[in-house]
Write a structure and sequence with these properties.
By secondary structure, the protein is of the alpha/beta class. About 35% of the residues lie in helices and about 25% in strands. The strands form 3 sheets. A 9-stranded mixed β-sheet has the order 5-4-1-6-11-8-12-10-9. Helix 3 packs antiparallel against helix 4. The protein binds uridine 5'-triphosphate (UTP). Uridine 5'-triphosphate binds near residues 23 and 110. Uridine 5'-triphosphate binds next to helix 5.
């Protein structure tokens, strides 16, 4: 198990996973969407791997009563491991042992799904006094290749404050996203954030930079979360707390991600992620490519 690397501005990586996952019903009636496999690996394990590579020392997973299976994925299973060992199934044994060995995991409960901001606020109680920032990784967003959080940490070191992640979208599609209003810095991939607009019409969009689910947040965000009012649906929005900080002069920057981003939170995005990962998989890639070519030709 790795431990927090001292060059990282955060020790705790927060993974909010207490949402209802309604876009994925009926599957999410009993299976948390974070456990749906991308090829054979639950999405949450890929997120844990990314946080570990970014230098986090522990993962704080926000769960609800309905989502206990998410934590179970990070527990050792002596019976299953013993059976695989007895049968000489070393590759499978290694796969099963991987998640529990990656990173320390703590369960933080959100009693009611009162929004992403409310979910993140629950983490404050488990932070050490010395933790001045946290990372937040939304498990719906698969951002490849890994490395964006390290770039974001670098930006916090240079500019202070909080750092978010953006990806470029086709200007015609901006209305599906939270869109940043930004000003340039001397680095083309780093912008200073002036504000955010939720799902703007194409003609009103301040940029084509959409928000992706990665954050390096200064601890000041917890104070801001206490000072905002619930928005639509009675939910406490994380973006409202960040907006409040921007208004008070707190530096907020975005790093523009140049790789791929998949949205695992809806069936359409999830299928693309599975196909993308499977095409690169040594066991399934060639067969899938052949089948897809044939299927598309017919
Ligand atoms: P979303 O609203 O996109 O996801 O929340 P959801 O609620 O799980 O799914 P849908 O919209 O019903 O299909 C973004 C992230 O915030 C977490 C979710 O688990 C997701 O990772 N979240 C949201 C919480 O942890 N608690 C909440 O109260 C709301």
């Amino acid at each position: 198990m790795t431990s927090h690397t001292s060059d990282s501005p955060f020790r705790t990586a927060v993974v909010p996973a207490a949402g209802l996952g309604t876009r994925f019903l009926p599957a999410t009636k009993t299976v948390p969407k974070e456990l749906l496999p991308v090829v054979d690996t639950p999405g949450i394990e890929l997120i844990a791997e990314e946080a570990t590579e970014a230098g986090a020392g522990r993962l704080a997973i926000i769960t609800s009563e309905r989502k206990v299976g998410v934590m179970a994925h990070f527990s050792e299973d002596a019976v299953l491991e013993g059976t695989l060992e007895d049968r000489g199934k070393d590759v499978l044994l290694h796969k099963v042992q991987r998640a529990p060995g990656l990173i320390e995991v703590v369960d933080v409960r959100q009693e009611e799904p009162l929004g992403l901001g409310h979910a993140v606020a629950q983490v404050e109680d488990v932070l050490g006094a010395e933790e001045e920032a946290v990372a937040v990784l939304l498990p719906d967003d698969l951002i490849m290749p890994f490395g964006i959080l390290r770039q974001m940490s670098e930006v916090r070191r240079e500019h202070g404050g909080s750092v978010l992640c953006a990806f470029e979208v086709d200007p015609d599609n901006v209305s599906s996203y939270g869109v940043f209003e930004v000003e340039d810095t001397s680095d083309a991939t780093v912008k200073r954030v002036r504000g955010m607009v939720e799902k703007p019409a194409a003609e009103d969009a301040p940029s084509n930079l959409a928000a992706a689910g990665r954050y390096v947040l200064d601890r000041a965000v917890f104070d801001a979360l206490r000072r905002i009012e619930p928005g639509a649906g009675g939910e406490l929005q994380l973006t409202d707390a960040i907006d409040l900080l921007i208004g008070e002069g707190h530096p907020v920057h975005v790093v523009v991600h140049e790789g791929t981003r998949h949205d695992l939170g809806n069936p359409g995005g999830y299928i693309k992620a599975c196909v993308d990962f499977a095409l690169d998989n040594a066991a399934y890639g060639d067969d899938l490519r052949g089948w897809l070519t044939e299927r598309l030709g017919s």
